[in-house]
Design brief:
Elements: H1 2-30, H2 34-41, H3 50-78, H4 83-109, H5 116-156
Helix pairs in contact: 1-3, 3-4, 4-5
């Protein structure tokens, strides 16, 4: 249980850092001139909308991390086999699957604009995110099945 508590706090700190990074990034981007912003995103897939697309992607990842943290918190409060954790992990798994597939598609579409090493490392990172999403979905199923078995066991006694 101590490891889950530690993981819960690490996720809280990580979410806090990401929440601080968003306004800092926006302030830095706001201080750039329009010409610099246009030059920075002219070859991008989404053009001038690239920072907003990135902001939406970060928000989805933050929501997924928040759900994982809440699932761990439910572990701490209600034990390992509970419906809340299962639902939270399932939501996070689907969100991470969406982000990873979206990232792989974007990486493949802009493959000609970036070096091969960067494209390869991006795809590897998104495949890892995909594996984490699938793992969260599997964990949600195990927790749900464990809750069912625990309920049946309590009724038998």
């Amino acid at each position: 249980m101590k490891k889950i508590i530690i993981l819960n706090w690490v996720l809280k700190i990580f979410i806090g850092i990401l929440l601080l990074a968003i306004p800092i990034n926006e302030c830095l981007r706001y201080n750039l001139s329009n010409e610099a912003i246009t030059l920075m995103y002219k070859d991008s897939l989404f053009g001038d909308f690239s920072p907003y697309i990135m902001l939406v992607r970060i928000a989805i990842v933050l929501f997924a991390l928040f759900n994982i943290q809440k699932g761990l918190q439910a572990f701490i409060k209600e034990g390992f086999f509970n419906v809340k954790s299962s639902d939270r992990f399932k939501k996070s798994g689907y969100l991470l699957l969406f982000i990873s597939l979206f990232g792989i598609i974007i990486s493949l579409l802009v493959m000609y604009q970036s070096p091969e090493e960067q494209t390869l490392s991006d795809i590897i990172m998104y495949l890892l995110l995909l594996a984490i999403g699938i793992g969260l979905l599997a964990l949600a199923d195990v927790i749900k099945k464990g809750n069912t078995i625990e309920t049946e066991n309590n009724l038998t006694i």
